[in-house]
Amino acid sequence: MIYGREPHLVDCAHPNLHAVYQHLIDVVIRRSNQLIHSSIQNKCEAYCRLMRIDKPIGSLLLMWPTLWSLWLAGMAIPALSTLTVFTLGVFFMRAAGCVINDYADRKIDRYVKRTRDRPLPSGAISEQEAKLLFGALVGISLSLVLMLNSMTIALSTAAIAMTCVYPFMKRYTHLPQLMLGVTFGWSIPMAFSAVSEHLDLKCCLLFLANITWTMAYDTQYAMIDRDDDLLLGIKSTAILFGRFDKLLIGFLQLITLVLLGLIGWQGTLGVIYYISLVGAAGSFLWQHKLIRNRERQACFRAFLNNNFVGMLIFIGIFLSLLPPGASNFYFPYFYAK
Question: pTM for the complete prediction?
Fold first, then answer.
């Protein structure tokens, strides 16, 4: 007893109190599940953005030269197993490249309007999580390449090294676009080694053509961030070329077309391949119309248009290497004797 009064005991077994208690438990559980689900969903979305799954243009620009190489290496349709390994490898290694690139730029991106909301500078993904994700993506890529021959496996180690080095090049040289061209083009010798087990003249010409093409379109992309890069001390060909940027982009594109033309001549590709090169040249002219005033959005549109260029060239290669019967059926005019 307290102050002469008996304590009031609450009967938790009372039906009404039990219902209220159960309702509170249900609310807590439901809210906890919602928070957990929301947290997992946000984390997954952050991982996807870090790997640029929502922006496939980089994967496509890496994919087209890989497909060119797989077809040209054997001058025929490649084996399905090889095609599958390279297709998956392109997407996993591009994702790994995006992760290591954002990790390298995590302290810079927070000062750039276009990149400050990326997962690492915004804190949506921790540095440790980014490193673990990069390791997982590289591990998956290595497991894929182990299905190929020893020469291709050896070449893949250089690809991983270049993927790690490239993001830091813009701090030390005005030619990070050259390094990107070599890195993006490394799938070309890998494809030739996987299909034919040797690197011939076509491989060398295609590798050089991809370097000049990559330098051209990545300079267009660098023109978007040129003002921010100048403030932050970041180097690029867009800064190096200065007021001659459009002229030198055109020069790089011209070299690309000449090298691709030599590949067609050396590989005795059909008329339809050269028509695809004419289409690519038309796309390059359209890009120059877009970038004439160096406006950011227009430069980005020009950059995106290179996906169409890569697709056109692949269509030309693919149709030129169709079996004779199929070629005559689909394109009787071009293949008429």
Answer: 0.84
According to DSSP, the residues that pair with 162 across neighbouring strands are none
Taking 50 as the threshold, does the pLDDT of residue 257 lie above it? Answer: yes
Q: Are 301 and 290 in contact (CB under 8 A)?
A: yes
Query: Where is pLDDT greater, at 291 or 24?
Result: 291
Here the tokens at position 41 are: 């969903």
Give the tokens for residue 51: 């790997």
> Could you identify the residue written with the tokens 């997407």?
91
Beta-bridge mates of residue 5 = 2
Identify the helix (H) or strand (E) that includes residue 63: helix 57-74
- Decide which of 106 and 115 is more confident: 106
**Domains of the chain by range and CATH?**
51-330 (1.10.357.140)
* Token pair 């691709």: residue: 260
Which amino acid makes up residue 7?
Answer: P
Cβ pair 290, 305 in contact under 8 A: yes
pLDDT band at 95 (very low <50, low <70, confident <90, very high): very high
Most distant CA atoms of the chain, gap in Å: 118
Which pLDDT band, with edges at 50, 70 and 90, does 14 fall under? low
The Cα 3–Cα 304 span in angstroms is: 83
Query: What is residue 14's DSSP assignment?
Result: S
Interatomic CA distance for residues 68 and 71, integer angstroms = 6
Give the residue, 249 or 335, on which the prediction is more confident: 249
Q: Which residue has the tokens 């023109």?
A: 223
Q: Is the pLDDT of residue 135 over 80?
A: yes
Alpha carbon dihedral 171, 173, 179, 181, in 10-degree steps, equals: 110
Q: How many CB atoms lie within 10 A of CB 54?
A: 8
List pLDDT tens digits, range 269-314: 889 999 999 999 999 999 999 999 999 999 999 999 999 999 999 9
The contacts of residue 304 (CB under 8 Å, 6+ apart) are 57
CA–CA distance, 299 with 224 (Å, rounded to integer): 6
Instruction: Please list, residue by residue across 1-22, b when 16 or more beta carbons sit within 10 angstroms of its beta carbon and e when fewer do.
Output: eeeeeeeeeeeeeeeeeeeeee
**Residue linked to tokens 């390994």:** 85
